[in-house]
Amino acid sequence: MMSDFQHTISKPIEIQGIGVHSGKESYLKLLPAKENHGIVFKRIDLKENNIIAANFDNVIDTTLCTVIGNPYGASVSTVEHLMSALWGCGIDNVIVEVDSAEVPVMDGSSLAFTNLIMECGIKKQNAFRKILKILKPIELMVDDKKIEILPSEDFIIDYTIQFASKAIGVQSFIFKENQTSFKEDISKARTFGFMKDLAALNKIGLGKGVNLSNSIGITDDGILNKEGLRYGDEFVRHKVLDCIGDLYLAGARIKGHVKAFKAGHALNNKLLRKLFANKDAYVFIEERKQFYAA
């Protein structure tokens, strides 16, 4: 059961790796933050106008990853795996310093971030956690893709993917915050891609850091990774990982039931935008505070 109080990390954490799309080295430093600070990115390679709040309204691109930016042109891409790890570890407040425009991909999952945060330690803070409670259903459809969020007393993601590839096919997974282990069941799931698409992606400046140590490579004959899959349904579990990270850009943990079919970064963000455009569909609560005041 997740605590009602806000949390930050106990001490700074340093991380280094390459960006999966830029192919460039990236240095990341997580710093503790005070109560009600939220999650904020800081581009330390820029001298000014370098602060970007981790918020759905700051998402500026969703092509193969989630990119956040500010009005001055500063941006950080591929934030979803780190955001997912922060959610999974129960971190509400943290400063993320990064010296480039992309978060390092590590092994393509959230595992490295999750392990480092847990090893560092988590600090309980003297403020109640804000919860985003869904009151009315919100639904989005684009072609054959669909995502919706329904009222629930728990955070649930019911996700289905469908690919023509024999290596993937149709996969479904149901994540329940109070029943599923984020670290054991979700954090290890790696990003994936089709090798036939890589050259085209490189031409538009994406996928330049892709290799089999940070991605699952898929061909017509199956997967290229000699170690195989970490889960039999690793592909859909990674989509759940992405969804958790994208939805954490709501600025709070959610009480709601998400149902997704062939969704992705774009629909995840559009869902939040539609939700917040409907003021009667949600409410922010501090349950324990309300309980004590009664």
Secondary-structure topology with pairs:
Layout: E1 5-9, E2 13-18, E3 25-32, E4 39-43, E5 51-53, E6 59-61, E7 67-69, E8 75-76, H1 80-88, E9 94-98, H2 111-120, E10 122-128, E11 131-134, E12 138-142, E13 145-150, E14 155-162, E15 170-176, H3 182-185, E16 192-194, H4 198-203, E17 216-219, E18 222-223, H5 234-247, E19 253-261, H6 265-277, E20 282-285, H7 287-293
Parallel strand pairs: 4-9, 11-19, 14-19, 16-17
Antiparallel strand pairs: 1-10, 2-3, 3-9, 4-5, 6-7, 7-8, 11-20, 12-13, 13-19, 14-15, 17-18
Helix pairs in contact: 1-2, 1-5, 5-6
Can you tell me about this structure?
This protein has helices spanning 80-88, 111-120, 182-185, 198-203, 234-247, 265-277, 287-293, and strands at 5-9, 13-18, 25-32, 39-43, 51-53, 59-61, 67-69, 75-76, 94-98, 122-128, 131-134, 138-142, 145-150, 155-162, 170-176, 192-194, 216-219, 222-223, 253-261, 282-285. The chain has 2 domains: 5-128, Ribosomal Protein S5, domain 2; 131-287, lpxc deacetylase, domain 1 (2-Layer Sandwich). The relative contact order is 0.21. It is of the alpha+beta class and 294 residues long. 21% of the residues lie in helices and 34% in strands. The radius of gyration is 18 Å and the shape is globular. The strands form 5 sheets. Strands 11, 12, 13, 14, 15, 19 and 20 form a 7-stranded mixed beta sheet that branches. A 5-stranded mixed beta sheet has the order 2-3-9-4-5, covered by helices on one side. A 3-stranded antiparallel beta sheet has the order 6-7-8, with no helix packed on it. Helix 1 crosses helix 5 and helix 5 packs parallel to helix 6 (265-277).
